Amino acid sequence: MPSLLAEHPLICALVLILVDLVLWRLIVANHGNWQIVVRVVIFSLFSILLFNEGLNPMEPAPWADNVPLHLAATGLQIGWWLFGARTLTVLICAVMMQRVGHTGRLLQDLLGALIFLIAIIAAMAYVLDLPVKGVLATSGALAIVVGLALQSTLSDVFSGIVLNTTKPYQLDDWIAIDGTEGQVIDIDWRATRLQTAQGSMIVIPNSLAAKAKITNFSRPSDMFGVSISLQVSPHVRPQTVIDALERAMQGCRVLMNAPAPKVALKNSSPAGVEYEIIGFVASMSEKRSVRIQLYDLAYRHLQASGITLLSSVEPNPSSEHSRPRALLDSSPIFSTLRQEEKDTFSQNMTLQTFRSGETILAAGEVSHHLFIIESGVVTVTLNRHGIPFESGRMGPGEVIGEAGILNDSSVPAEFAAKTSCALYRIEKEYLKPCLAARHDINEAMTTLLDFRLHKAKVLTQEEPVLVQKKGFLQWLLRRA
Description:
Blueprint: H1 2-7, H2 9-26, H3 32-52, H4 67-100, H5 105-127, H6 132-149, H7 151-166, E1 174-177, E2 180-187, E3 191-195, E4 201-205, H8 206-211, E5 214-216, E6 224-232, H9 238-251, E7 262-269, E8 272-281, H10 287-304, H11 322-330, H12 339-347, E9 350-354, E10 359-361, E11 369-375, E12 378-384, E13 387-394, E14 399-400, H13 402-407, E15 414-417, E16 421-427, H14 428-437, H15 439-459, H16 472-478
Antiparallel strand pairs: 1-2, 1-5, 2-3, 3-4, 6-8, 7-8, 9-16, 10-15, 11-14, 11-16, 12-13, 12-15
């Protein structure tokens, strides 16, 4: 076999092309850098072999008197131009991928098509010795006819080039095109594809997208706006509402600190006043859950301030123990108590206030009373390897100190007032007989304690360190 290849180098050149095609398929996509290296090496060997045999791709093929050999040489010379065009396209695309990522795919395809067109014309001019001027004139007339027939498609193509150049949006951006909202999953020659929040796909022609009003929710990057609106009675003092809504914002830990969330008075009329909470999150996937959490927190903090959302039905006038009773009614733990039991409980609840930054229950401290948050925001702090970090925030209606009530134990978390807080306290001596008599309340409190201990254990575990993969092309680009 080696002697056959040595005596017939043209066969060896053909074998090199086949080896390149096979290795390109065998090397997996995860090792794309090795694919490029192998292709460059094989193209270099292919070029050396042709030039050593006198097959200069800049000249017509030799051996005109031997038709089979002449045709084989002509095919290899044309293959050299196409092979070179493909190798150059792969290299340029790899460099562009490092610079602009997948968003420049349309430009990469256009550049690749241009390189192949130049290679074909060069092969016709140098290898086949054809009159290129006549070919170009004929192809120009043909291009006019095809262009008129494909006017709409060409409009989408050139609009796609404009969109990729100006980059009003990129892959994975959340955008709205004339009110159609979704995540960009592909930008090709003809259209932009969006995946909506419901999971369906919308195809928008590039020509329409280039003319439409585009809203990009991903710019600036890693910052997505979220807002909710609430209406309250015009008879409530605005500052009281704003203070309650600001506490609700501080209770939502997912909101970004910069830009800072804010409360605005959006609209007012004799029928009601509309307030808006505006904030930002780091991920589009968090918007829906944060909106729900914000609304729930706003409802609880407004209720803690004695404010109800605007409704066509007037609320019942509050009684002497309306707030303690309301806390017991809204609490999942005590909701099963009978009305007379709630009345008795509310009379044995003592109000205690804490200033901002003051510790309510220290980590490891055994509590001898159960706290129910009446108003304000409580921050929960854990320690991982001696470094404290905030693991959560609590608001009106949530309880603190259940571990000491159940089994004289403690939790590893510290509870402190993030804002000025008011908490109702129920003493252990009063609560213990109730837990012995009411197993449903005991089980609910036990479930809450188990959940908190499990969450604390998960959050304090050591996080694995991710090692960033480095490739051959990244190494070359860093030294370029």
